[in-house]
């Protein structure tokens, strides 16, 4: 973050700018204090807990155990990371390689082939897959022919189950209606467009210029062609964003009526992401304005009929995610919220993370290291972790809170043979602060997340994160001595 968040002077601006009654209850002080408190829990333990001692051998062992276990036939999720982008967006915090050399796409597909071969050997041929996601970077950096080659390889290696959710992240500047037709033909049925902001000045400041008209045209095409769900990514807190400029972008987004919206708060970490050093800190909205932008966006989406899924995600009431939330069927994996059952995940490509039973494994982050391992027919795994029994109990608690908004003590007791009230005595005590803030209610049978709490659910989940709490305790201790 560019500066320490400061409290807005009053909440009346929020009530005014919110426009709809729906979010007048979202107290800016809470947004300020808890808006991004805690990890996003796409996994537990979180990826920053992975250790280098978990390498190819441990990963192979996990696969051998899977092959002998009862879950060996359970459907899998497959994630493919395509790291290339044609041009650099200055805000970007993704794992990407910016290049104009299109031939790198085919070279990368050779590497993916080699990795897929290892998986086929480990899982057996044609393992069942119910979810596929191509992310990046920019998967549509690949040509139509290359995407066709990748899809064909994935179909040959895995059994794409009927009703498979196949999604792809798209930079709108890289596709046309014809390319969308091609993607649909390959079996993709869900797409996500990176928009971030429609304002021309903001777009110039972040070096990502794309017109509203071009995105609007693609949205019409996507609908017309019958994609099951279209998502738009937005970022609030970008340079030169003002409440007035962002209100215009929000109105344009709502007008396009995407099925889903992901609203991210801009993570400015120029020490870590070199490209962000090109953003002038003076252009970044101050903390109080950032909070307004965030609250305005939430208000605009709720007023337009979107349902809040959790954290940064919104969906139209008839979208599968919104239906799953209402029916308590939401799950969470590295792709975020999903309607897919909680199963194993195959991560293909640089930096991709896999989950096999209670283990996680992450591939090398650089192309060189990834290619070196595959040249030797070795798993390109560089880090990972085997969950302990305690990790599994906490994972169940965290996912129940993040996905169902309810941690049911009897369900946890039955699944893990513990008495949750005793096991989590300290955590339930620590929830008193969140209870006083109106984010949760704790009673004899369960912890329940309130509608307000869904906006801050990561801060509630974080209470159950033993690793994070140990770090925080150490920090407090080192401040005292
Ligand atoms: C891999 S990109 C999306 C696909 C494609 N490359 C594109 O840009 O259209 C994933 C998303 O991460 C979000 N993102 C990237 N950097 C971010 C940052 N520093 N803070 C918050 N969100 C960020 C953006 O919304 C972006 O659309
Ligand atoms: S936002 Fe998307 S297109 Fe831009 S650099 Fe990041 S991954 Fe590439």
Task: Tell me about this structure.
This protein has 481 residues and is an alpha/beta fold. It folds into 2 domains: 47-338, Alpha-Beta Barrel (TIM Barrel); 389-480, Arc Repressor Mutant, subunit A, CATH 1.10.10.920. It has helices spanning 12-18, 28-34, 56-68, 103-123, 144-157, 177-186, 200-205, 212-225, 243-256, 287-303, 320-326, 367-375, 389-404, 409-416, 420-423, 425-430, 432-436, 457-461, 466-480, and strands spanning 76-82, 84-85, 97-98, 127-136, 158-170, 190-196, 229-236, 260-265, 307-310, 313-315, 331-333, 336-338, 345-348, 353-356, 359-363, 381-386, 406-408, 440-442, 446-449. The radius of gyration is 22 Å and the shape is globular. Bound molecules: S-adenosylmethionine (SAM) and iron/sulfur cluster. S-adenosylmethionine (SAM) is lined by residues 85, 91-94, 135-138, 169, 171, 194, 196, 233, 235, 264, 266-267.
């Amino acid at each position: 973050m560019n500066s320490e968040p400061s409290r807005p002077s009053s909440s009346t601006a929020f009530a005014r700018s919110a426009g709809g009654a729906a979010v007048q209850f979202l107290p800016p002080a809470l947004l300020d204090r808890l808006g991004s408190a805690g990890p996003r829990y796409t996994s537990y333990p979180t990826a920053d807990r992975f250790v280098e001692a978990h390498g190819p051998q441990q990963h192979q062992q996990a696969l051998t155990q899977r092959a002998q276990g009862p879950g060996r036939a359970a459907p899998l999720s497959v994630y493919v990371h395509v790291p290339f982008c044609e041009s650099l967006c200055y805000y970007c915090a993704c794992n990407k390689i910016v290049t104009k050399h299109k031939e790198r796409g085919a070279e990368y597909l050779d590497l993916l082939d080699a990795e897929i071969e290892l998986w086929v050997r480990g899982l057996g041929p044609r393992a069942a897959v119910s979810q596929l996601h191509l992310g990046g970077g920019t998967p549509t950096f690949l040509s139509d022919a290359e995407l066709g080659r990748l899809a064909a390889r994935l179909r040959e290696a895995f059994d794409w189950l009927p009703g498979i959710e196949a999604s792809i992240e798209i930079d709108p500047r890289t596709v046309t209606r014809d390319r969308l037709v091609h993607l649909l033909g390959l079996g993709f049925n869900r797409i996500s467009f990176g928009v971030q902001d429609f304002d021309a000045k903001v777009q110039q400041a972040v070096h990502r210029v794309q017109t509203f008209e071009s995105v609007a045209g693609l949205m019409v095409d996507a609908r017309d062609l019958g994609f099951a769900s279209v998502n738009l990514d937005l970022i609030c807190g970008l340079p030169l964003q003002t409440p007035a400029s962002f209100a215009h972008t929000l109105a344009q987004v709502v007008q396009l009526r995407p099925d889903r919206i992901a609203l991210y708060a801009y993570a400015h970490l120029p020490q870590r992401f070199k490209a962000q050093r090109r953003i002038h800190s003076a252009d970044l909205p101050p903390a109080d304005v950032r909070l307004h932008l965030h609250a305005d966006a939430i208000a605009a989406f709720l007023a337009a009929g979107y349902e809040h899924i959790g954290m940064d995600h919104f969906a139209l009431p008839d979208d599968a995610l919104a239906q799953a939330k209402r029916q308590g069927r939401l799950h969470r994996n590295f792709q975020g919220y999903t309607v897919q059952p909680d199963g194993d995940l195959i991560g293909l490509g640089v930096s991709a993370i896999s989950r096999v039973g209670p283990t996680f494994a992450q591939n090398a982050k650089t192309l060189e290291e990834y290619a070196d391992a595959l040249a030797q027919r070795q798993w390109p795994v560089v880090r990972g972790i085997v969950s302990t029994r305690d990790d599994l109990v906490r994972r169940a608690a965290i996912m129940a809170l993040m996905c169902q908004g309810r941690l049911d003590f009897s369900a946890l007791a039955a699944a893990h043979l513990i008495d949750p009230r005793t096991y989590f005595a300290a955590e339930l005590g620590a929830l008193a602060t969140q209870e006083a803030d109106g984010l949760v209610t704790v009673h004899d049978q369960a912890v329940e997340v309130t509608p307000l709490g869904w906006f801050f659910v990561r801060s509630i989940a974080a209470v159950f994160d033993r690793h994070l709490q140990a770090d925080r305790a150490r920090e407090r201790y080192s401040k005292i001595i």
